[in-house]
Specification:
461 residues; mainly alpha; four-stranded antiparallel sheet; 12 helices; 67% helix
Length: 461
């Protein structure tokens, strides 16, 4: 067998060998391809590429604050040296990697010592957070400590497992207790909400007995008992309080008062204004000697006093609509429709307020209808809806309303583009298209309002 010596090895039978070094014996690393010179240069270049990779690793270690993260990469590179196919002096490379490994082990030991101190301090900080009486504040602090714990590396080997177990045990205990607390709180809320609903139902049943002795006393008693029900979720409290005011107002309304005006006992009391016209069920002006309605006087502009009086009455209707809009019952929607009929009969208001009050009133009416529509849609979409708890119901309705919003916002954009196109071409103003745009805009506003309410409600459940 003819043998030719080359740097760091030899060639025999068209095969390239790396000469023995350290504990490694001669080893074939390749074959001669085009020529011996090109083959030798190829394996010399491969070795230089290996040296370059070690240089890069050493530089990265020296520049890194977290040196320990490079230990596994260094060990893998050191282990692979004995099998690397390249011509060169490997002994200095082993020595370099061994020195780097020792330096890393020293750095890791120091880091673990520091991490042990940090984690011990974090455990003490966790104990302080767990002692907080406010669950929300405690949770924020616990999660902050947990985040810093995760970012902290391993502690000393002899105590690392013990520290981790202690930390995890405290975390698990905290979140278990938190879950029990809020489950008990939700159960208490459910009991109180049901109690309020029972009061509401009792008020409804008392309406036909308004004139009977003792009815008003019982209504006042319900109002007193209501104040002692206890804490409720904010959104549920607003809804139930509005419901209570709406039904108790029925008992304290003056017999001769126009719709939307209540005595101070149990509700708002707007300034008295002209009653709605008879054609809308509001008790119109007396016919003898009375002036005709505005519609019968097309060329007569209402006086400032009449405009202001109409505004007062419409504001009163808005106040009543605000109560009805949040009830979400068929009865409340029917009442809103009645208010709309009364609204139409009231007449003009001061020009500078007309758009504002009209838009406000229409949004409230739409919100009341949208609320019951959403509830019905949820029940139709999921046969098990009524069996869900409040949190599941809220999440499901949020999903539905987001889907509806996507469609409504696309339609609104289409209407807007059509109006812009008309304006750009100076075509005649299309009142029907403009009204469709305004209606669609209200639908989007109402759905966004409901979605925001549901988000707030979900946070409080």
């Amino acid at each position: 067998m003819e043998r030719r010596d080359i740097p760091f090895g030899y060639i025999a039978d068209e095969k390239v060998y790396l000469s023995a070094y350290m504990e490694f014996s001669d080893r074939q690393i390749g074959e001669v391809k085009e020529s011996e010179e090109k083959t030798i240069q190829y394996f010399l270049d491969r070795f230089q590429h290996l040296v370059q990779k070690i240089d890069e690793l050493e530089k990265a270690i020296n520049e890194s604050e977290n040196k320990g993260s490079y230990l596994m990469k260094l060990l893998h590179m050191k282990e692979s040296l004995g099998n690397y196919d390249g011509l060169g002096d490997y002994h200095p490379l082993f020595e370099r990697l061994t020195v780097l490994e020792e330096d890393l082990n020293v750095a890791i030991a120091k880091n673990r010592e520091r991490n042990s101190e940090i984690k011990t301090a974090l455990l003490e900080e966790l104990d302080q957070a767990l002692a907080e009486s406010d669950w929300r504040e405690a949770t924020d602090k616990v999660l902050d400590v947990k985040d810093r714990w995760i970012k902290t590396g391993n502690a000393k080997k002899e105590i690392n497992a013990e520290l981790d177990l202690s930390f995890q045990t405290k975390l698990t205990d905290f979140f278990d207790r938190k879950q029990v607390y809020f489950e008990d709180r939700r159960k208490a809320f459910d009991v109180r909400i049901q109690k309020c609903e029972d009061y509401i139902n009792e008020l409804k049943s008392l309406k036909p007995k308004k004139a009977e002795p003792g009815t008003i006393d019982r209504v006042r008693e319900i109002q007193r008992e209501w104040r002692n029900v206890g804490e409720l979720p904010a959104r549920e409290k607003r809804r139930l309080d509005k419901d209570l005011r709406y039904h108790t107002n029925y008992f304290f309304r003056r017999p001769d008062a126009p719709t939307g005006s209540f005595q101070s006992r149990g509700g708002f009391q707007g300034r008295s204004g002209p009653p709605a016209r008879t054609m809308y069920g509001g008790g119109g002006r007396p016919q003898d000697g009375a002036r005709p309605a505005y519609s019968a006087r097309p060329n007569v502009m209402p006086s400032p006093e009449e405009l202001e009086s109409n505004l007062v009455r419409k504001v009163a209707l808005i106040q009543e609509a605000e109560t009805l809009a949040d009830l979400g019952t068929r009865e409340s929607v029917d009442e809103l429709r009645k208010l709309q009929q009364i609204w139409k009969g009231i007449g003009m208001v001061p020009k500078e307020r007309a758009k504002e009050v009209t838009e406000h009133f229409l949004i409230l009416c739409d919100r009341g209808q949208e609320r019951i529509f959403l509830e019905n849609l949820a029940a139709n979409k999921d046969p098990e809806y009524t069996k869900k708890n409040n949190r599941e119901k809220t999440r499901f309705k949020m999903k539905l309303i987001r889907d509806l919003l996507v469609r409504d916002e696309q339609d609104l954009q289409t209407y807007q583009e059509n109006l812009d196109r008309l304006n750009a071409t100076k075509q005649a103003f299309d009142k029907m298209l403009h009204n469709k745009y305004l209606n669609q805009k209200r639908k989007v506003i109402v759905k966004r309002q409901l979605l925001q309410e549901l988000k707030v409600s979900l946070d409080q459940i």
